Amino acid sequence: MHDKTTTADLSLRLLGRPLDELDDDERRVLDAIAERRLISRDAADIDDEGASFGARLSDRVARVGGSWGFIILFTVVLVGWMLLNSAVLERWGMAFDPYPFIFLNLMLSTLAAVQAPIIMMSQNRASAKDRIAAGLDYEINLRAELEIMRLHEKLDQMRFHELSEKVDALCERLEVKD
């Protein structure tokens, strides 16, 4: 159905360069045009296919840690911790982390030290996904431009053929009158 000469012809005709000078994206687009197949793909699906367990986990941690639910719950836990250790348990002398809440500060520091790099991993992953999406957008845009160029060629050919027929008809009419 599709052969390399067709792709090579498209390369020369539409891009003005031989096939061996094209990059992978351009070749992929020309192959898709020659094979008459779709090239659109979802960047998220492509990224998720190659994602490791750690990458998916970092996305989940960032999604939870960056939500209002987490902020509200975390605030409730912090206020509860402070009230419990300053008002309730201190009356009976059982406060395990009295003011200035040194253990709470240690836990918050530990959480920040662990959570920050995990969120950075998720942001790096999102950046990589954006690069994939940009590459896919380029392919789609290139495909659209090349298809428009092909349509213009076909229209030009149709116009030329129509004009050629009219000229032939006029020539015949002129020959008949002579």
Automatic annotation (TrEMBL):
Q: Name one Pfam family in it.
A: DUF1003
Annotated TM spans: 68-89, 101-121
Q: Which UniProt keywords apply?
A: Membrane, Transmembrane, Transmembrane helix
**Keyword NAD applies:** no
Entry superkingdom: Bacteria
What InterPro entries does the annotation carry?
A: DUF1003 (IPR010406)
Protein name, please? Cyclic nucleotide-binding protein
What is the protein's species of origin? Sphingopyxis fribergensis
